[in-house]
Amino acid sequence: MAIVRNKSPKICQYKQIPANPIRLVFEILLCVVLIIPAVLWATIKLFYKSPRKNIRGQVVLVTGASRGLGRELCKRFHMLGAKVACVDIDGEGCGETAKAINGHGGIAKSYKIDVTDRKQISSMHAMVVKELGPVDIVVNNAGIVLAHMYVNPESDQLIEDLINVNLLGQIWINREFLPSMLERNHGQIVAISSMSSMSGLCGISTYTATKWATNGMMESLHNELRALNSAVVSTTVCPYFIETNPEVSKHLELRLPEMPTYFAGKIIMDGILKNRRIFSVPNHFMLPVKLVRTLPDNLQRIINKVFYVNIIGFPKDVELMNRYRQ
């Protein structure tokens, strides 16, 4: 009786050979050589006060302008001589922001729109151009800041609202105003993101998702603008918690307190006027957060417990936490 031996199948090995390998080696060596002066120059720039651009007479559009950070930025742009388009779904609050600016000798107009509605955005754009002129700077500040436990069955509508306002709203605004900027080869798109885009916190999964997506969108936009050799610039701002809404504050338990609005506004304005690509508020937050993420998980957990950020959920979230906690 013959014994048939099954031959083991050959294991396919994947050899990852890059295109133009010799050229790649030289390009890597060139990058290594350039890293040293680049790091030195970046270090020098930390102690060098970069010039801020002059925006007097320019048109600045700020979404979420009815209160908080949006109102603070509107006032700061006015003080620098810009004409301000105040945009918000809260028409009354938005009107108060514009009224305050006009009362101090500035030029501001109020526009009540829903940033998730493309038709409203288009109509608003036409009105801004007619009343103030072409928009030079767009600040995407409108956003919903609310928490929910991932599996909370009552949060379906909140999830949709968070994504529609915090992410899609920015995309529709940018797509409306960018063509004019590209044609004039002048302009700036600003996204108010969050430090939560650097670290996923328990209890704000959808909010965090919109901010991580915002960072990725803005980085892609930055690279598209470079590919076009355009003078239009993009700026992404990642603030820590800002003291703008008592209803939000009561759901936060923080080791480091929330920042006053005027403090955050000053740093954000400075970064916008210097055309910074991405930065945190305060300025020194981004580097340590990135470094912590390179550490092993157990060390990350220890550091996160020291510098804790606890989100206190709504009653249903607390109920679910108690039900599923092991």
CA-based shape = globular
The string of secondary-structure elements, in order, is HEHEHEHEHEHEHEHEHHEH
Q: Please provide the count of β strands.
A: 9
Alpha-beta content class = alpha/beta
What share of the residues lie within helices? 40-55%
Whole-number radius of gyration?
A: 24 Å
The residue-averaged pLDDT reads: 93
The proportion of residues in beta strands is 5-15%
Cross-sheet strand order for the largest sheet: 3-2-1-4-5-6-8
Alpha-carbon distance between the two ends: 60 Å
Low-confidence stretches: none
* Major sheet: 7 strands, parallel
Work out the helix count.
11
What is the compact description of this entry?
With 326 residues, the protein is α/β, with parallel strands linked by helices. The protein is built from 11 helices and 9 strands. Helix content is 49%, strand content 13%.
Structure in words:
This protein starts with 20 loop residues before the first helix and ends with a helix. A 7-stranded parallel sheet has the order 3-2-1-4-5-6-8, sandwiched between helices. Strands 7-9 form a two-stranded antiparallel ribbon. The chain is built from 11 helices and 9 strands. β2, α3 and β3 form a beta-alpha-beta unit. The protein is of the alpha/beta class and 326 residues long. The longest helix has 29 residues, at 156-184. α2 crosses α8 (261-273).
